[in-house]
Design brief:
With 433 residues, the chain is of the alpha/beta class. The protein has 2 domains: 330 residues, TIM Barrel (Alpha-Beta Barrel); 89 residues, Immunoglobulin-like. It is built from 13 helices and 21 strands. The strands form 6 sheets. Strands 1-2-5-10-11-12-13-14 form an 8-stranded parallel barrel. The protein has a 5-stranded antiparallel beta sheet with strand order 15-16-17-21-19, with helices on one face. A two-stranded antiparallel sheet has the order 3-4. Helix 6 packs parallel to helix 7 and helix 7 runs parallel beside helix 8.
Amino acid sequence: MAQFKTGPKIYNLFPRLVGYMKDWEAHFERISGMGFDWLYVNPFHYPGFSGSLYAPKDYYDFNPIFAEKSSTVPPMVQLQNAMEAARKCGLNVIMDLVINHTAKDHPFVKTHPDWYEHNDEGEVKSPGAWDGGNYIEWGDLAEINNAHSPDKKNLWKYWQDLVEFYIDKGVDGFRADAAYGVPSELWELLIIAGKKKNKEVRFFAESLGCSPEQTLDLGKAGFDYLFNSSKWWNFQDDWLLRQYNQTRVIAPSIAFPESHDTPRLAYEYQNNIALIKQRIVFTAFFSTGWMMPVGMEYGFKNKTDVVQTYPKDWEPVNYDISGLITDINKTRSKYKIFNEECPIEIVHNDNWANIIVMRKTSLNGKEKALLVLNKDPFNRQRLHFPDLADSLGVKPGAKAADLSLEHPMSDVPSGAFEYMLNPSDIRILYSAI
């Protein structure tokens, strides 16, 4: 067992792909066996007319495609049974906390209209987003007025009761959906209340797209973790490390190679296994925590859909990289440097056009690691350091180890270092001071 606090290793079990709660349990042993310690399940509440997971109509009732209504076991007990089975496999359970909006046909639209935003015509407003210059309105949703509702006290009390209720039922963590769209003061209230109920409960902020000011507000609200944008980095532009070094002092972050909202890597990279592995390994070792969705280990190609995905959409195994994922989690758990939001800087190499080298330095300064990536997906590239110790930032002659997930060197030479990287290769070199 690690002698330090490990970052969360999260497996996203997208429930529409798996089905009934009792069927979730068949995956827990496999998930735990790969080394994950958190299980994130997207919304399981009763949905509105669209059927979208993210259009909750009743936070205390359950989607009939997850809870068997014909069962003699009450739906809430079905959920508790699933969570208990997860915990027996060493998995803490994260639920989605969707409080920026409800379904358009939620009863609150009529019983508590002042809890909602309204347009100029006095109608309940739907949220939306800009996409390629076009504003897309989500007509199945009704936007909550958490910031300025005239009945804000009772509205916020409703959310607090909801958080406390699910903690009492056994939830270990909450993913705050669209966290930037909710006042930080409300998040602070909910986080304080949640941790008063259970000091071990964790709050994860969906912070993608946040401005630096919004990210700072989320950190001040007390979130345990944010999410970072490493999934989209091209291994060249400076925006990722600039963002990371701005936010790492606010709260630790979680990286992911794909998510329920993104295309699958197998589809995006057309089954180029080297590119796929590079993105997975990079995100796994980039920040404090990492997350992957169900099916990534099997090379699933179809993007999950919050309305249209069903268990029949479970795909045949395209390839199986469960072993790689297991090795990733084992390696992460052995070294403190891969479980903290430590400084990252670019290290010069004489083949910089094709190879990027990032140096991580542990917060206590006692560990160093180089992440070396071949940006060329077609050709082998020569990596050369005049002095590996200097590139690592350690004393001359200090011993280094190759922690690369595939074909690691048994002995890393000190001094001048040369290595031929395969196309889309990623290597991890490590030294303890």
